[in-house]
Each structure stands twice: as structure tokens, then as C-alpha cells.
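Human:
Take a look at this sequence-structure pair and walk me through the C-alpha cells.
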Amino acid sequence: MTKHAILSASGAHRWLNCPPSAQLERQFSEQSSTAAKEGTIAHALAEQKLRGALGLSSADVEALDVDEEMDRYTNDYVDFVLESIESAKLQCPDPKVLIEQRLDFSEFVPEGFGTGDCIVVGDGSLHVIDFKYGQGVVVECEENPQMKLYALGALNLFDVLYDIDEIAMSIFQPRRDNISTSRIKKEELLRWAENELRPVAKQAYVGEGEYRSGDWCRFCRAAVQCRARAKEKLDLCRYEFAFPPTLSDQEISTILGTLDDLTTWANDIKTYALEMAVQNAKRWEGFKLVEGRSNRKYIDEEKVAEAAIAYGFTDIYRQSLITLTEMEKQMGKKKFNEILGDLVEKPRGKPTLVPITDKRPEMIIENAKQDFMEEQ
């Protein structure tokens, strides 16, 4: 049975912002998802391919459910790592490569450890690489606490063996076309660990500190029943659904920044309440469990077609192209562009308000106004 750290590297963004959540989460069981299982398979396949490329022994993953997309993206990951190794050779002729390496950062985080997907180290260079197969959220490397913890763990292993002044950290997220790399000086990393990480980790380990709600709640197991998160969302009620023009600019900006997570929170509550009603026969005051609406469907399409044609109804089929995504997966990206590049267009997206930190370029106002009027 795999032991999980109370203060995991993957959850660092959460427990650094909301220290007591680390202990609170332990009261809730961990729910496995399709995306998590898919990520586990992708990591196993990536490890096997990388070990094979480096001439190392590896476990067989042929029995795993691997599709064409996963096969292509794990190849891309291996290529990225091999390029990183070649780059390291410019400073050190024989860099050391560690795959799925346990990293210990317990000097700063009580019982803290994690697993680095790939570490490339040599004289003067240390590169920590994390493979992320998820596509829900783009993960940036800059000021990423998970990557900093991995860097601390790698430094703990190699600082006495190699002359390391700077650590490179990379996140390879192929399904979002995201390769994010940042660098940090060893002294800066150690200052962060001593002054910011250590005191908060000490609080988090014993369940102390202040509960705080934010984007870090997204993957918290306690999020549905967390009072701090509920309070933040319910605080929006102070606006009492006022007609938008009567709100101040500052109030509207504040509301815009919370609406997405408010919707997520509301859906989380509904999902939790439904699961408890179905699985545990939980009765919620003022509500009851009923059968939802459903649509009719054919039991056996072949028999339906035979019966309809037998009675003279022949115009019963529709024909349409497969989706762009399916076509690209079938052909491969390069062949798709060669064959269909001139026959595919990407219309302008409709105007959307996003936080200023979003990396997409700002729209020209006149274009936005025209698109908005057409949409209306």
C-alpha cells in the first residue's frame, strides 16, 4: 500500500494557502476519477518509454489501456527529456538521470516527500521535470510550490555531490500544449524554504492556522463541507441580487472574480447531496429523490433499421463527417495539416471577460463590440 504524505508536494498550493486543510482532508476518503486513472496509466507508459530510450529495464505496461493520443503524447515527453539530457551534456559529459525518484524535503516540511518524474543532474546543472497528463487546468512552473518542493528534494540528494548554483524546473503538459520552465537560484530557493515554507508547514502538519478559501479549493477533498469556502460564497448574498448598473465598478470586479468558483461550489454541493441521498439514503429537509427526465433510445439499431426498411421506410440514415479532433487523431497532426490545413478554419472566439493574468492577448475594442453585437 502506497503511503501518502500529509503535506504532499502536489497539494502544496492548497496547504500553503490554507494550512488546516491538510489535516481536515484526512477525514474524507479519496475519490478516484477517470482522469486520475488515465494520468496513472500515462505516467507508467512514459516511464517505460523513457527507461527504454535510456537502455534501462522497465516494467511492462502492455496490458494498460493506451490509446493513440496517449502514445503520441508520451513520445513527446520522452523527446523533451532526451533534449534536456543533451542540453545538460554541454556542461557535464555524463549527467545522471533519475526516473520516478523519491524526493525527501522533510528538512523543511514534516515527513515531507514526493516523487519526481525525472531528474537530470550534472556539474553545474540540476533539472527537475514533471509530466502532467491532465488537460483541465494549465499548470505554470513560475512560483509553483510543488516544483519548488521537488527542487528542494533533488537538492537534498545532489548538493554535496555536484556544484549546483541554479535549479531548472519544467512542467510538460502536452494535452494543453504547455511546456513551462523556470529557474531559481539555490540561495533563493533555500530562503523561501526557511522563511516561508517551514513556518506554514509546521502549522499545517498539526492542523493549525487560518482556513482560507480560493482557487486552491478545487481539488480539496473537504471542499464540499468546508465552512470557510461556504462563507466566502454566501457573502455574495450581501449584494442581494441588485440590478447590475446599481453596483459600483469595484463591486462588479469583485463579483466577476468569484463567479466561476461560486458555480463550481454550488455544483459540488448538489453533487454531494445527491450522492448522499442515493448511496446512504440520506434525507435532506425540504427535498426528495425522484426519477429525472430521460429520452427515448433504440434498443438495437440494426433491428430497428431492418424493421423500418421492411415496411418501406428507407430514408432513415444521416451521414456526417467525424469531428475535427477525431480526424486529427486518426491522421496524426502533421498529416492532418498537410491534407486538410487549407480546408479548416478557426473562427474568432466570442468576447469573454477573464482575469488580467490570463495569457491570451487582449481584444481590440472595436472587434469585441462588433462580435458582441453579432452574438446578441
In short: DSSP finds twelve helices and five strands in the chain. The beta strands are 96-104, 113-122, 125-131, 166-173, 178-185.
